[in-house]
Amino acid sequence: MPHQTDAERIAALRREIKRHDHLYYTKDRPEISDAEYDRLFRELVDLETAHPQLITADSPTQRVGASPLDELTKVSHEKPMLSLDSMTDQDDVRAFDARMKRELETDDIVYTAEPKFDGLSVELVYDRGIFMRGATRGDGMIGEDVTINLRTIRALPLQLETHPALPMHLVVRGEVYMRLDEFQLLNRRMTERGEDAFANPRNAAAGALRQLDSRITASRPLTLTCYDIMAVSGASPPTHWDDLEALAAWGLPIPEHRRRCRSIEEVLSFHAATDVMRNALPFEIDGIVVKLDRRNWQDQLGSKSRSPRWAIAYKFSPRKEITVIQDIAVSVGRTGTLTPLALLKPVEVGGVTISRATLHNADEVARKDVRVGDTVKVERAGDVIPAIAERVPIPGETRQDPFVMPDHCPVCGSAVAREGAYFYCTGQTVCIAQLKGAIEHFASKSALDIEGMGKKTIAQLVDLGLVRDLADLYSLTKAQVLTLEGFADRSATLLLESIERSKSVSLDRLLMGLGIRQVGQHIARVLAKQLGSLSKLMSATQEELLQVREIGPEISASLTSFFSEERNRAVIARLIERGLTITSLSTIPLTGSQSLTGKTFVFTGGLAGYSRDQAKELVEQHGGQISSSVSKKTSYVVAGSDPGSKLDQARKLGVRILTETEFTALVTPE
Ligand code: IVH
User: Fold this and answer.
1) Domain formed by 4-62, architecture
2) Which residue, among 318, 419, 286, has the nearest Cα to 361 in the 3D structure?
3) First vs last C-alpha separation in the chain
4) Structurally, what CATH architecture does the domain formed by 600-667 represent?
5) What is the per-residue pLDDT across 526-573, written as a single tens digit (0 to 9) for each?
6) 79, 112, 121: which to mutate for ligand 1, most atoms within 8 A of CB?
7) For a surface tag, which of 395, 468, 526, 600 has the fewest beta carbons within 10 Å of its beta carbon?
8) Ligand 1: centre distance to CA 181 (Å)
9) Which atom of ligand 1 has the smallest separation from the CA of 255?
10) How far is the CA of 83 from the centre of ligand 1 (A)?
């Protein structure tokens, strides 16, 4: 290959990244993995950092670059951004068709029908194919300039394809929205951080687009669909259908699901089919939009003050329904977190019967002020667990007492402890709801290291009732192991041998294996070294623990609540009774996969599932390194709740940013 200059390589990378953005965001047909994409992006960032004079505004790296604004400036739209007359009744839709036929004096009418996207409408201006300006709809005449925020949306091409011939000036209308799965993730992140969740994807999208700081917009997963050419220099295509195809050819995303309808019956059937599809779509739509297809017809009919005469929104029946909370139950997750669940009088929402809705956590219940017996609106967003949208106050109603979290675990009866908005069961070693996870952790390499005790085996042991707590592992018989799927004589012997071997364990490994919150490998080692024996640790008070270097209030509280739970003490006693012997402190060798060798991690913000030390240890176990500051050499920045300036730095340098979930996936190889 002839030698490529840096400038040529930069141009090639930009072309390549744009192509992949288009494939991923517009065509929904990626050709490369996220990791490969990230590599291309990193290479471009590195080259541009080395040659800042080669940076251009349309480079994919420049999607976020502006500093925060004081306020959004107002802009007048070139043409009014009209709204649509909306209807939900079939008869009204037929009446619309009758009117079209009457006014156009023909029975031969063609409509284009497409989904009505439930996001927010934007105006996009392209000059000679370059994205110049974008604005929200506002009052239809004047909107807000959100150009720099729109630039962060990867589905939005900064430069259009040049075939077919590009108009000098093009004004496109589209909808900015958020996918349901991304919306769920975002809301989880927000509530974990103690911030209010968004009520629905539309609010989340509006909140993200109207930010003064485009870096915030960039961190929110927005996408776009275009459905109208508002203005164009030169000749326009003769039909709306052709408009859409021209937009697609220029590289803009358009509604994939659409139909050209030659009768109103076809429109009605498209509406019915789309309503069925709706639950399977990864984003929210709230109806269909029906437009006269031919431009000369549209022009002939013209517009009223707020809406065109030639198009309507034919809405679906609403997805929010009213029902009553019959009870509030509490479920216990794999890590012991207690989640309140509203048990509802069954109600159909968007074709699906709903009888439960999550209430997230105790703070959320208090914020929404919902109680047993209350009338509420329930909302369903896609296939996810439905949520209570709001309480509907009934005049004169007598309400029950506010909900309080139980002080004992509804599954195992152990005491419940609190960490911020979250309540959790302290019976980590005995609670059936947590048992599989607890055994996996106990048997893992850096804890008791029971070879052959994999996920599948553990699931069977628990499901068959052979193991009801950690100590039961040490009374398994060969006959029992042989009843498990996948075990024969030899493998059963090997498993029992490795269980036997694990009986001799160092204090730090045992502590680590018990799965006490906040106690990872490093802290387990510190505790073992400083306190020396299990009995000392079990009887230590919070004040005594606080004397130990590196042990803060959270760790000491977690330890004392764990050891004050009678059932945990009983399991430890039974472990010892069954022959577990604590050897002197060992230094735990590196046992991880070494899959992170050469990778540098920087953490910013709080993590929900790990202390900093635990996270650090996990990285080191797998051969990775920790650094306290972000540089070009940083492989990943793990952003927890309330991330600091390191996150901004990471974005600036194009360093790959991981959520806590992504981080967990990296350090928990299958
Ligand atoms: S066409 C002149 N098509 O629905 C026609 N609008 O009240 C302009 N919308 O504010 C609109 N999907 O935000 C059109 N496929 C679609 C649409 C759509 C969603 C929104 C748009 C508008 C509202 C109508």
Assistant:
1) Orthogonal Bundle (1.10)
2) 419
3) 40
4) 3-Layer(aba) Sandwich (3.40)
5) 899 888 899 999 999 999 999 988 898 989 999 999 999 898 999 999
6) 121
7) 395
8) 23
9) 15
10) 7
Residue 475 pairs in a beta bridge with none
Longest dimension (CA), the chain: 95
Closest CA to ligand 1's atom 18: 116
How far is residue 158 CA from its own chain's centroid? Answer: 26
Please state, in angstroms and rounded to a whole number, the distance separating the CA atoms of residues 256 and 285: 13
pLDDT tens column, 572-608:
999 999 999 998 654 444 345 677 878 899 999 888 7
User: What is the position in ligand 1's atom list of the atom closest to the CA of 118?
Assistant: 19
Give the angle 73-74-78 at the CA atoms, nearest 5°: 135
What is the residue type of 94? R
Q: Which of 266-280, 303-317, 378-392, 567-581 has the lowest mean pLDDT?
A: 378-392
For residues 460 and 479, give the distance between their C-alpha atoms in angstroms, rounded to a whole number: 14
Task: Tell me, in angstroms, the distance from the centre of ligand 1 to residue 325's CA.
Answer: 36
List, as one string, the DSSP characters of 328-343.
Answer: EEEEE-TT-EEEEEEE
**Domain 322-391: which CATH number of 2.40.50.140, 1.10.150.20, 3.40.50.1980, 3.40.50.300:** 2.40.50.140
Domain 416-583 indexed as CATH 1.10.150.20: yes
- Of all protein residues, the one whose alpha carbon is nearest to atom 10 of ligand 1 is 83
Q: Whose CA is nearest to atom 4 of ligand 1?
A: 116
Cα 362 to Cα 376: distance, rounded to the nearest angstrom: 17
Rounded Cα gap, residues 651 and 607, in angstroms: 19
Q: Residue 429 class from Cβ within 10 Å (0-12 exposed, 13-18 middle, 19+ buried)?
A: buried
pTM above 0.85, yes or no: no
- Looking only at the bridges linking them, the beta strands covering 311-315 and 85-87 are parallel
- Which residue numbers are catalytic? 116
What is the distance between the alpha carbons of residues 127 and 145, in angstroms, rounded to a whole number?
A: 16
d(CA 41, CA 43): 5
Sequence ranges of the domains in the chain: 4-62, 74-315, 322-391, 416-583, 600-667
Determine the distance separating the centroid of ligand 1 and the alpha carbon of 376, expressed in angstroms.
Answer: 30
How far does residue 602's CA lie from ligand 1's centre (Å)? Answer: 44
Peptide bond just before 340 cis, omega within 30 deg = no
In the chain, the amino acid numbered 66 is: A
Average pLDDT of span 608-622: 79
Task: For 359-440, list the strands marked E by DSSP.
Answer: 375-379, 387-391, 416-419, 422-425
Report DSSP letters for 63-114, one per residue: GS-PPPPSSPPEEE-SS-----EEE--HHHHHHHHHHHHHHHT-S---EEEE
Quote the crossing angle between the two packed helices 6-21 and 34-50, to the nearest 10°.
150
**Distance of alpha carbon 95 from its chain centroid, rounded?**
43
Q: Which of 28-37, 296-305, 316-325 has the highest mean pLDDT?
A: 296-305
Q: What is the pLDDT of residue 383?
A: 41
- Which of the listed ranges 47-61, 246-260, 625-639 does the model predict with the highest average pLDDT? 246-260
**What's the CATH number for 74-315?**
3.30.470.30
CA dist 484 → 63, 442, 466, 494 (Å):
55, 20, 10, 14
What gap in Å lies between CA 253 and CA 19, rounded to an integer?
13
Model confidence at 352, pLDDT cuts 50, 70, 90, reads low
Does the pLDDT at position 122 exceed 80?
Answer: yes
